[in-house]
Design a protein that fits this description.
alpha+beta, Phosphoenolpyruvate Carboxykinase, domain 1, Phosphoenolpyruvate Carboxykinase, domain 3, Phosphoenolpyruvate Carboxykinase, domain 2, nine-stranded mixed beta sheet, about 25% helix, binds oxalic acid, binds manganese (II) ion
C-alpha cells in the first residue's frame, strides 16, 4: 500500500504534509506482517544496530547511545495554549513558539532515511474503549517495537474508515544523513538540547524529535496512551491511568480484577505477574503499565490494557522476582542496552546468577564478568534502564480475557509507593473521594541512593497517582476529574480504593533481608486476599483514623517466615505521630502547588484526617 491508497482523507493529507516537511528518501506504509518485521530487523542487523541472540529464538539486542537511554522529562512538554492548563508539574512552551522551533528541526530531518507510516490501535481492535493513531517515524527500531507494543499495520485501516478519530504522532530521531552517509552501527539521535517530546493537548497531537528510546519514541505508550489520553478521558468522562491490571482468583474460583498505580521502581510489573505464596490463589495479568477505564452499561468501571506488549526494565528481573516476565521475553523479543554474553544471550545486574567469561557491556565494551550479579554504580554491564520489549501474549500468566474488547470490571484500585516509614502495609479508603486523596499523596521517600543532596534524604517525592510525568493537563484539574467521575457514578458499583506499602524498613533488625519488614513479591498475595475479601464486604477490618485496616488475624500468615510474623503487627499499626507529620507535609509542601486548581474535597479529607489523628 502507498500513501496515495490511504482512504482516510485527513490522515492522507497529514502524511503528505509531513513528507513535504521531513523530506524522507522514501515512504513505506507499514503492513504489520511478519515478513516486514523480519525485513526491517535484517536492515538493523546489516546496519550494525542490532545483534541477533544465538541463545534466544528470534531475539535481538540493540545498544543506544549513552545520551539516549531513558525518557527525558526535562525535554517533555505539555504545549497547551495557556500555561495554567499544563499546570505546575509539567514543562510548558507556548505552542506557536514550540511548533516554529520544531518545524525548523523537522525540515529535511529525514534526509537519507525512510519514513514509516504506522497505523496502530491502542486496545483490542474494535473495542469501544480502544483508540487509533498514526505514527510517522524514521526509525526501524521504533517500527519493530511498535509492532510488539501495539496492534499495528494493515488490519487497523478498516477501523479508521474514511473519517474515524485518530491521534497524529510524528517522530524523528533527528539525525538526517548526507548523501551516502550511513549510521555505521551508531544509534541515531540528536543532542539533548535538541530533543523535544511534545504534546499539544488541544489538538490531541504528539510531536517527538531527537530521541529513539522507549517512551520518547514509541509514541503510542506514554505520549498517546497517557498524556493525550488523559486529556481525551477528561473530555469524555473516563480514566486513562498509569496502572497495572491484574486478575485475582480465590480458591473458590471467584474472580476479581484489580488495577494499581505505583511510581517507577516499585515493582509494578512484578505485581502484575505475581506468583502467590498462599495456596489456591491465582494472579493473572491483563496489563502491566497502562489502564483505560470506562463505565459499562451496568454502571461498573471496566478496564482495558491499551498495549499489546511489555516494555519492561530488565535489571532486577530474575526467576525469583518475576519468572513470568523472563518467560515472556524468551523469544520474539527486542532487548535494548542489556549486556551480551559469549554464548549469545543477554545478561543484566540482578538476573539472579553471575555471568561467565567475557561480556559486551551496553556501551559495546568487552569486559570480564564479575563473580556476582551486581556491579558498582556507574560500571554496570547492562544500563539500569535496559529494557525488553516482549509480546504480552507470550506471558505464561496472561489472563484469557486480556483482549476482551469490553474490558474487565474493576473491583479495587491500589495506590502505593516506597515508604520506609509511616504508611502501613495496607489501608482502605472510606469513600471514593478519600481514595482520590490517597492517590493524590502517592510518593516515594528519597533515599541516599536517589539523591546526592543529603538534606533531601527522608523527604517524600510526591508522584500523585504515579502519573506525574504522564499527565497531559493541570494535575489539580486531574484530581477534580477523578472526583467528578466518582460523583456521577453509582457509589455501590465504584471500585474500592486501597493504599499498599511493601517497603517499610527497620534497619536495626538484622533478621530482615535488606531491612524490609515485609517480604514483598509472592507474599503480597496475602494483602491481595484481604483486599479481595474487603471488596465482598467481609468483616475483616477495623476503622482507624487513616481508614479501614486489617483486624487482628485478618492477614493470612500461614507459611510466612517467622521474622515477618514478628514485624506484621508493627506494619499494621497506625503511626499517629508519623501521619501528623504527613498531614503537615501535604498541607505545607504538596497541596499548595496546585493553588486554586486543588479540589476543595481534598482539603476537606485532609482536615478530616487531621481531626481524627488529633482525637486518636
Ligand atoms: C515506564 C515508566 O517506562 O513508567 O513504564 O517509566
Ligand atoms: Mn510506566
Amino acid at each position: 500500500m502507498n500513501v496515495s491508497d490511504i482512504k482516510h482523507a485527513g490522515i492522507k493529507a497529514w502524511v503528505e504534509e509531513c513528507v513535504k516537511m521531513c523530506e524522507p528518501d522514501n515512504v513505506v506504509v507499514v503492513d504489520g506482517s511478519t515478513a516486514e518485521y523480519d525485513r526491517l530487523m535484517k536492515k538493523c542487523v546489516d546496519a550494525g544496530l542490532a545483534t541477533p541472540l544465538k541463545a534466544k529464538e528470534n531475539c535481538f539486542l540493540f545498544r543506544s547511545l549513552p545520551s539516549d537511554v531513558a525518557r527525558v522529562e526535562s525535554r517533555t512538554f505539555i504545549s497547551s495554549k495557556k500555561e495554567e492548563d499544563a499546570g505546575p508539574t509539567n514543562h510548558w512552551i507556548d505552542p506557536v513558539e514550540l511548533k516554529a522551533t520544531m518545524k525548523g528541526l523537522y525540515t529535511g530531518c529525514m534526509h537519507g532515511r525512510t519514513m514509516y507510516v504506522i497505523p496502530f490501535c491502542m486496545g483490542p481492535l474494535g473495542s469501544p474503549i480502544a483508540k487509533y493513531g498514526i505514527e510517522l517515524t524514521d526509525s526501524e527500531y521504533v517500527v519493530l517495537n511498535m509492532d510488539i507494543m501495539t496492534r499495528a499495520g494493515e488490519k487497523v485501516w478498516q477501523y479508521l474508515g474514511t473519517d474515524g478519530d485518530w491521534v497524529p504522532c510524528l517522530h524523528s530521531v533527528g539525525k538526517p544523513l548526507n548523501n551516502g552517509e550511513k549510521d555505521n552501527g551508531i544509534w541515531p539521535c540528536a543532542d539533548v538540547e535538541h530533543k523535544y517530546i511534545s504534546q499539544f493537548p488541544e489538538e490531541h497531537l504528539v510531536w517527538s524529535y531527537g530521541s529513539g528510546y522507549g517512551g520518547n519514541a514509541l509514541l503510542g505508550k506514554k505520549c498517546f496512551a497517557l498524556r493525550i489520553a488523559t486529556v481525551i478521558a477528561r473530555e469524555e468522562g473516563w480514566l486513562a491511568e498509569h496502572m497495572l491490571i491484574l486478575k485475582l482468583t480465590n480458591p473458590k474460583g471467584q474472580v476479581k480484577y484489580v488495577t494499581g498505580a505505583f511510581p517507577s521502581a516499585c515493582g509494578k510489573t512484578n505485581l502484575a505477574m505475581l506468583i502467590p505464596t498462599i495456596p489456591g490463589w491465582k494472579v493473572e495479568t491483563v496489563g502491566d503499565d497502562i489502564a483505560w477505564m470506562k463505565f459499562g452499561k451496568d454502571g461498573r468501571l471496566y478496564a482495558i490494557n491499551p498495549e499489546a506488549g511489555f516494555f519492561g526494565v530488565a535489571p532486577g528481573t530474575s526467576a525469583e522476582s518475576n519468572k513470568n516476565a523472563l518467560i515472556s521475553a524468551e523469544k520474539n523479543t527486542i532487548y535494548t542496552n542489556c549486556a551480551l554474553t559469549e554464548d549469545g544471550d543477554v545478561w543484566w545486574e540482578g538476573i539472579g546468577y553471575p555471568a561467565k567469561g567475557k561480556l559486551v557491556d551496553w556501551k559495546g565494551n568487552t569486559r570480564d564478568a564479575l563473580p556476582k550479579d551486581k556491579s558498582p554504580k556507574g560500571e554496570e554491564f547492562a544500563h539500569p534502564n535496559a529494557r525488553f520489549t516482549a509480546p504480552a501474549k507470550q506471558c505464561p500468566c496472561i489472563a484469557d480475557e486480556w483482549e476482551n474488547p469490553e474490558g474487565v470490571p474493576i473491583s479495587a484500585i491500589l495506590f502505593g509507593g516506597r515508604r520506609p516509614s509511616t504508611v502501613p502495609l495496607v489501608h482502605q479508603a472510606r469513600s471514593w473521594n478519600h481514595g482520590v486523596f490517597l492517590g493524590s499523596i502517592v510518593g516515594s521517600e528519597i533515599t541516599a541512593a536517589s539523591t546526592i543532596n543529603a538534606a533531601e534524604v527522608g523527604k517524600i517525592r510526591r508522584d500523585p497517582f504515579a502519573i506525574l510525568p504522564f499527565c497531559g493537563y493541570n494535575m489539580g484539574d486531574y484530581f477534580q476529574h477523578w472526583i467528578d467521575v466518582g460523583a456521577k457514578a453509582d457509589q455501590d458499583k465504584l471500585p474500592k480504593i486501597f493504599y499498599v506499602n511493601w517497603f517499610r524498613k527497620d534497619e536495626n533488625n538484622a533478621d530482615l533481608p535488606g531491612g524490609f519488614m515485609w517480604p514483598g513479591y509472592g507474599d503480597n498475595s496475602r494483602v491481595l486476599e484481604w483486599i479481595f475479601d474487603r471488596c465482598d464486604g467481609k468483616d475483616n477490618y477495623v476503622d482507624t483514623p487513616i481508614g479501614y485496616m486489617p483486624k487482628e488475624g485478618a492477614i493470612n500468615t500461614d507459611g510466612l517466615a517467622d521474622c515477618y510474623k514478628k514485624t506484621l503487627p508493627e506494619i499494621l499499626k497506625v503511626d499517629v505521630e508519623g501521619w501528623k507529620k504527613e498531614v503537615k507535609d501535604i498541607r505545607e509542601n504538596h497541596y499548595p502547588k496546585f493553588g486554586k486548581h486543588l479540589p476543595k474535597e481534598l482539603t476537606a479529607i485532609l482536615d478530616d484526617l487531621e481531626s481524627r489523628l488529633n482525637k486518636a
